[in-house]
Structure formats: C-alpha cells, structure tokens
Design goal:
Two copies of one chain form a homodimer. By secondary structure, the first copy, chain A, is an alpha/beta fold. Chain A is about 25% helix and about 25% strand. Chain A is built from 16 helices and 26 strands. The termini of chain A are far apart. Chains A and B meet through helix 1, strand 9, helix 8 and strand 16 of A and helix 1, strand 9, helix 8 and strand 16 of B.
C-alpha cells in the first residue's frame, strides 16, 4: 500500500445543491412567509422548491451557463430565497447587491462582478432606475411582482419574473458544481474606499450552514421560526436562508418593513424563535416595549452584531423576557459567522453578562490571533491589544480582481479591527483601528465609552468619535441623541458627572453634541465616517467643556 | 472574468488537526476521566493535548512519516484519545482494531492495512500475545501503562508508552495534512466473510464531527459530559472522541468496565449528559434500576443503535427519567452517523414514540434511497420495501484493496439492509437481507417480531431467526431468554397467545427455544450468524408447536 494513503470516502461535492435538496426532500411542509406590511403570506417549502426549479429552467432558457453571475437587487422575500436556492444549485453565482448604496457604487459593483443577469424587486424600481443605463453588460433584468412594473422600466432587457417563469417545469436536473467554484458574491459595504468583493465557494457555503446548526453557534433547527431581519443582500443574512432551509426551519421575510410597528406585527403573528439585528434595532424594540408591552419571550435567542451591544441592553432583554442575547462579530469576508459570545460552562467567577459582553469565541473552523504593528504575535492574554487577524475555511483569502494589503504574508486576513484575545479564545474588540482615539499617547475606546453612556437613563443613542485637539492630539467627542427633548444643554454636564467614577478620568469627553438623529450606514451601523465629515465641515453644534488636565482634577 | 468562476476563500485544509487544535486552544480546563473499576481519574484537555504532542514527537523519533498506519488495540481510555488526536494530526493514519475479534482476524487486519506501528493497551496483553508472531511487518509495539508489562512480551519490537514518551517535548509543529488523505481506518466487524476496511479522510472526519454538533443530530456541546460507552475501536465510537473534543465536552472513558455495577458507578459519579449504547446494554440498565434505583435523569439524550430499540424500552426511559432515546442507524462505512430518529416538528397525528421507533431521518449530507432487486427506485412512500442505499460526504465509496459488489454503478453504497423510506425521508429498517424470513412467498420481519415479544413481561431478550420448513420453506424460530427461571416449558405457549392479536397470524412462530443466554457479536449485537450455526448443528433444544395452517385457524 502506498504511503500518503488516500481515503476510500465517496467524492460527493459539498455545496448549495446539497442543502437545497436536503431541505426540499425532508421538510416539504415547512413554511416561509412574506410580510406585506399587513400580514404574512405563508408558502410551503414544496412551493418554494418548485419555483426554484422553474427559475432554473427559465434562466437556462435564457442561456445561463455555470459561472455566470446573477445579481439580486431585492428585499428579503420568498422570491429572493428561491433565487438563493436556484442560482448556486445550477452552478451559477448569486451576487447579492446592497440596495442602500449609492447609484454609483451599485453600478460599479455590478460591472466589476460582470453580472450577466439581474433579479430586481419591483418595490425597488425607483432606486434602480438610474442604475440601469450604467450597466450595459447586464443582458437580462428580471423584475419580481407584476408585469406592469417591468414595462414601466422601458428597457428591452427587462422581463417580469411571472412571465419568464410562465409554464416552466417544476423539476430541474441540478448538476454537481465543483466544491471550490464560486456560489455567492458579496461586496463589502465600503465604509472606506471602493467596495471590494469576496466570492464564497459551494463548499464554504455548505460548511457555514452546517456550522450554524451547532448548539454552540446559532443552533438552527427544524423547530425554529427565523425572523429574517438581517438583509439577504449583506453577507447572506448571517447565512440563515441556507442554514434555515437545510434544517427545515420556518422563516419570516419582512421585505422593506423593518420599522417598529411592523416588527411588532411580525413578532406577534409568527412568534419567531430566532433573529439577528444590529443593536440599534434591538434598542428600538426595547423602547417600543416601554410604550406598549411587546412580548419577546418567543425567542430562544437574539443574535446581535454590527457593533458592540451595551450591557444594559443584554440585561434588559434577559430581565424582561429571559432571552439570551448572543453577540456576534463577523464580516462580509467571513461568510460572516466568526466569533459568538456564548458564555463558557465554567463562568470562572464572572457573571453571565460578563461573557455575553465579549465579542465572542470562535466557532470551530475559525482561528483568531492578535498581532502588533510590526506583525508579531502579542500575548493572547485578554489584555494586550493589537490587530485581530483571522484564518479559516469560510474566510476569504483574497478580493475579486483587487490588490490589497488586507492579507499577511502567512495568509491571514487583517481585519482592521483592534482588540484582544484571552486564554480561552474569547475575543474582545475594542475599536476599528480608525475609531480608536489616541489621546496623549494613550488609547481611548470609543466603544467602551458608548457602552457606559448608554447606561444613563436619558441616552437613546450615542456615537463617540475622535476630534482634533491641540494639546492631546485627539480627544473624544460624544454625539448624543437623548430619549426626551427636555434635557438639551444640561445633558452633557449630567453625563460627565455620570462618567466620573466609571471610566478613567482622561476618558471623560469635554466635547459634546446633542443631536436629533445619528446617521446610519446602509447596513444599520452608526455612520462614524459621515459623522467625522460633519464635524470637519463644522455642521455639528459642539459644546466644549473644561477638559482633562485643564483643572486640578 | 472567466466563467466557472472560482471562489476567493482561503485554502485551509479541514481535518483532525483543525478540531484537535480548536479543542486544545479553547477548552484547556475541560476534562477527560479514566474509570479504573473503582473511580474516575480526571485529566485536563491541557494535559491530554501535551501528551498527544509528546506522542507525536516520540513517533517522529521512531521515523513515522505521513501515511503510515498506526494500529490501536486499546480499550476506551485517555491514552487512546491522545492517539486519536496525535496520529491523524501528524498526517499518519489511525487504525483502530476490534479487540473482540479472533486472533486470525486481528492479524489479517493488521497485515492487510500494513500497519507499521501498534499501540497496545496493557490490559489486553493476554489477548494480543498470540497475534504478535503473526504480524512480522509491524515495526514497533508501544504498550500503555507500566514498563514491566512491556518486558513480559519478550519481543524486541515492544516498548512501553511511558519510556517512549520519556522527556519528549510537550509541543509539536503539526503539519497540514491534505484533506483527502486518510485519517483513520476501520474494518467492518465481519459478520460475513473477511473483514473489509474503509479509510475515513481528514475532511470527512472533521465534517462528521461538525455535523454531530447539530441540534438535530447529537447536539454535542461544551456542557456535555459524554459517557464513552461505544467502543473507540468501532467506527470511532460514533465520532464522539472528535465531536466531544472539538466542543470541549467532558468525557468518561470506561476502559474494559462495561458491566452493570461499573455503569452504575460511572453514572452516579460523573452524571453524564450523553451516551450511546446497544439496546442490550440499555435493557441491562433498565433491569438494574428495577433491582436498585438508578437515576438516569442526568442524561439529556441516550443514543441507541446496532439493532432496533423496542418501544417498551423507549417508553420506559421516557417514563422513568424523561430522557429521550435517539435511535441511530449507521455503519462502519458511514463514519458512522447516518440516520437518527428525531421526531419531526409536526408529529402528523402520531405519538412521539411512533417517530422514535423509526430508524431515523438522514442528517444533512447523507442521502438514502430504496431500490428493488433489479436496481430500480421503488416508491419512497414508507411502505414499499427494498434495499437501502446510501450516498454522502462521509460514506465510503470503496473498500481498501478489495473488489466488492457493495456499490452500484451510479456510485451508491448498497447496505444489504432492507427497509423503506417515507415522504419526509424517515427510514424504517426491517431486517438485514439475510435476517428476513421468507415464509411461503411472504416476508416476516424478525426485528418486528422481536419488538413485540420484548413487550411481554417475562421476556428479557429474544432473537428471531429463520428455520427451514418443508411446507413454508422458512419459518420463524424464536430464541428467548426469560427474566425469571420459573416459566420454562410454559413460556412459548404464553407468548404465542400474547402474539395472536398483535401480528399477522402467519407471523406467530411455532418453533421456540428457551435459553440461558443469547450470544453477542464483538460489538454487542445478538449474534444471529452463530445462532443459525447452533440451530444447524442441533445444539439448541427446539420445541415445535402446532404451526400456521396446521389447524383451522
């Protein structure tokens, strides 16, 4: 027998087809519902699977070949799910487009990925109209919903979903795409520079879904009802469309209806067990509950990511409904599941909330390390800060047609995020490199400051950014939206007193702005880039109080 | 951009090293215990990981190279676990040997796999002694426990584990084995013909462990305490050593101590949450509880496989301790996780036990189909019987150096098991092809008959096999071990009456044998092959009652 012995296992390629067929075969009566702003319209897995086959037949009729890119410009919907299933299963590449980006960025991404087909949600026609003339290489634009909407676009490439599917067959001979072929493409939301694209493989999409079923990750299971709040145009919505389908979970698709009253309606009607949302949205739900009771006890877990979740929020959700909040840190580049804040079995003398405040522990398959500026490993002791770097099966190793310095010589992804890792592997992000405030040679964490400020009863939202300071190079500027209108001018002084025994003295901001609204990025994070621009342009009314070192404190 | 677009994901090979390092990095304080017949000796993951590195260094010193086979002839123990971790992580192949086989078969398997190294449990020296002269190509035999035992073997190839590890370094530079390289070898237990070997790959071993963490499979998790009853020499003990380590679960290793009082001691001391066992052993636990209360409420689930679990057993475990029994059907050829009897969320008007009595539903990644004798797909309707065939990532596609007819032309594994599959994918095994009783052109299921007979209060164990019959070609022979000695002769008549309104009339056996013990195979299943031999040799006292068609019934 030769050395370097090969296994005898079957060569069955892993991919979206594997999980697509598994869900269709075993869970034909599980359901997915579209919420239309009034009610949920439920459809069975059997119907959705049949429609995915019809779509595959229709696309084949239009000449699609393996490797072709199919863009989707759609809200979360059952039609979007059908596209999620059909396109990679037939060997083509699902390219989800962030509909909150600028016209320029949307056209750039479509052209850069060389999309040949485009699926368009009729509810987004207005947004898409100015993109259409800028994407000459797209051959077919398929519009969901009624044919009239499609006609309104007045472009020969446009066809309606319904007329295209027409009498297409409800079965399709799915091929066996290669494991390492691209299955999906997503571009980063581009908070810095042009958007950059990553291409998930068939295999990593399957692996990510399989890993999402673990108890210590999202525990996605047949009994779940997933409220699909994360956008399907962004990092595959935490992969829930795939892990949910593979597991036979019911799913609720909100479409564009993400505002408080709609969330309430969907939660009260479907009693979901699992969802994920940015902390801002979770804060909205807590406020909504204070206005009129909102029962969230149906959830077995709420995942929250995008930015750090304050302890007050974690404890409020626990105290009101006994529901655990799982923080997740992930990126477009990591498919996105990466680290999750499940407490360890041995709490080691700490509260459960202490562990839930961590960014999380890696899921198996992901490795995390902390490196200093010179590229040396620092102590992984939970206190030494450096750049977080990642490696793993569902982490990208490059960007599509793009040279970057985002990868180390030994092949790790440089995240640009700063933090530490402790002996058990728990990661604590402090800040994006650019969000750290460097004050007189010391670092101030904007995230930690925000967390403490959110504990004050009058604070609804707060963003802390660096502001130039002649004495300290940089100092923190706290931009606050208050819960009531009555505090105004007096609020910063109250908050400064509130901070005094909670953070180091030199952390207490002397720069303050009280605002009516804090701008968000296309994926719902606080837009610190825009805030810094507004500060630079003098568009914010900034109060200056006596600062650190200016009195004998 | 080219068509058939490749992904941008990192190329990080999946394998035992991935999960080995993950467990060591994140769960250094989790524990594994050796039970010595009196008490459990706990050791930390940190110690076990350090020892696995020492073993890797020692083997490297002996000249091991990637692809070399390392046989293990060991009970379940922490040293066996260290070998499980070290050998595949360094790119060599772990070949677990079933210590209950005959000397001839053991030597055959070692020579057939071309093992170069052999790890020997000192407690098995007596059994292994006659094998030693028959395996001339094995270069090194490493004996666990004391050096004195090793000396007793009087063979220059023999060295003790302790002296070998000596002052070996506690760190090792693990290489990156290829995904498709063999990681482990297991031979089938050979109920027919010579044992045949399968080689699990690095990738499939990782995938199997990852899939075992799903809620809808074994839900292996950090909070588990796994009582490692399934043999580590047989299909990787349901993969628990790997899924457990990857998840940071505590584990209890029973060594050779599998008898009732030892099980009681381990359960009462460690309060395990998860285990797997053959139905026979589960029956022993139920009987033990009747003798003196035994609290099994610590378990969150008990997996049972190897043969069908009777409903009486499933209900007894539920009623006494509120613990679900998960039936599992798997084979050496399937790594072994294949189908598991989790009830669906919609019970569809049936009881939960109805679903738990099914052999199970495939775990994602496994496909099952039922074929007739001519190789055509039969209706997958839950009633049409045929041969069960399997496909999937962790299913073998061949045997090591062996031509067989075990695979179809389109690449599916022919299991030799007979059963049906329903619309939701639930599999119901009826019998091994050779265990079906063909009576006058109709099939009688020996497994179903056994299940009904076990519901009778006097029956401790029962095996039904075919016996030649001049009129009906074959008829069922029921071989019964009763719970008490007092019934003897009268028992068969009682059981015949008991059966009358529970099975078809032609199923009621007229051939009966009441025995003191039913022989078991090396993996604890009832040895029907041996029973048939004993029947043929006239060694069983068989009663003949009036049979079907012999009176006007």
């Amino acid at each position: 027998m030769p050395n370097n012995m090969m296994s005898t296992m079957m060569n069955t390629p892993l991919g979206v087809k594997t999980l697509h067929q598994f869900g269709a075969r075993h869970f034909s009566t599980s359901r997915v519902g579209d919420y239309d702003g009034q009610q949920i319209h439920w459809r069975s897995y059997a119907e959705i699977d049949a429609n995915s086959a019809r779509l595959a037949n229709a696309l084949t009729g239009l000449g699609i070949v393996p490797g072709d890119r199919v863009g989707t410009f759609m809200w979360n919907s059952t039609q979007h799910l059908e596209t999620y299933l059909a396109v990679p299963s037939l060997g083509a590449v699902l390219h989800t487009l962030n509909c909150r980006l600028s016209t320029e960025h949307i056209a750039y991404i479509i052209n850069h990925a060389a999309d040949r087909f485009l699926m368009l949600d009729a509810r987004l026609i207005e947004t898409f109209l100015p993109v259409l003339p800028r994407i000459p290489d797209v051959e077919h634009v398929i519009v969901s919903s009624t044919g009239n909407d499609a006609v309104a676009l007045n472009d020969p490439r446009v066809v309606s979903f319904e007329s295209l599917l027409g009498d297409a067959e409800e079965t399709f001979q799915w091929p066996e795409p290669e494991e390492n072929a691209a299955a999906g493409i997503c571009y980063t939301s581009g908070t810095t520079g042009n958007p950059k694209g990553v291409a998930y493989s068939q295999k990593t999409t399957y692996l990510h879904a399989l890993a999402s079923r673990s108890v210590d990750s999202f525990a996605v299971q047949e009994r779940d009802v997933i409220l699909m709040l994360p956008s399907m145009f962004h990092a595959n919505a935490w992969g829930f469309p795939y892990s949910g389908w593979m597991s036979g979970a019911d799913m609720v698709m909100p479409g564009p209806h993400l505002q408080g009253p709609h969330l309430r309606a969907m939660i009260e009607s479907a009693r979901p067990t699992l969802t994920a949302m940015v902390p801002t949205l979770l804060g909205d739900l807590l406020l909504a509950d204070e206005e009129a009771p909102l029962d969230l006890s149906c959830f077995r877990a709420i995942v929250s990511g995008g930015s750090a979740v304050p302890s007050s929020m974690i404890e409020a959700v626990r105290d009101r409904w006994d529901v655990p909040v799982i923080q997740g840190w992930g990126m477009t580049e990591t498919s996105p599941m990466c680290v999750l804040s499940h407490p360890p079995k041995d709490l080691n003398g700490q509260t459960e909330t202490y562990w839930r405040l961590k960014s999380g522990r890696p899921v198996p398959g992901i490795e995390v390390r902390v490196m200093d500026d010179e590229g040396n490993l620092v102590e992984q002791d939970g206190t030494t800060v450096g750049e977080l770097q990642l490696k793993g099966a569902w982490v990208t190793g490059s960007y599509i047609n793009e040279e970057t310095d985002a990868f180390t010589n030994d092949g790790w992804l440089r995240t640009g995020d700063v933090g530490m890792v402790d002996a058990q592997g728990y990661v604590q992000l402090t800040d994006r490199t650019k969000d750290v405030i460097k004050s007189g040679g010391e670092w101030i964490s904007s995230v930690d400051l925000e967390d403490v400020l959110l504990q004050h009863e009058s604070v609804a939202e707060v963003a802390v950014v660096a502001i130039d300071d002649t004495r300290w190079q940089e100092r923190p500027l706290a931009i606050v939206r208050s819960k009531s209108d009555c505090e105004g001018e007096a609020l910063p002084d109250q908050l400064r007193s509130f901070l005094v025994d909670k953070v180091a003295k030199f952390w207490v901001p002397e720069y303050w702005a009280v605002v009516d609204d804090i701008p968000k990025t296309s994926v719902g994070k606080m837009d610190k880039k825009l805030l810094r621009e507004e500060v630079a342009a003098g568009r914010l009314a900034i109060q200056k109080h006596l600062g650190f070192g200016e009195v004998n404190d």
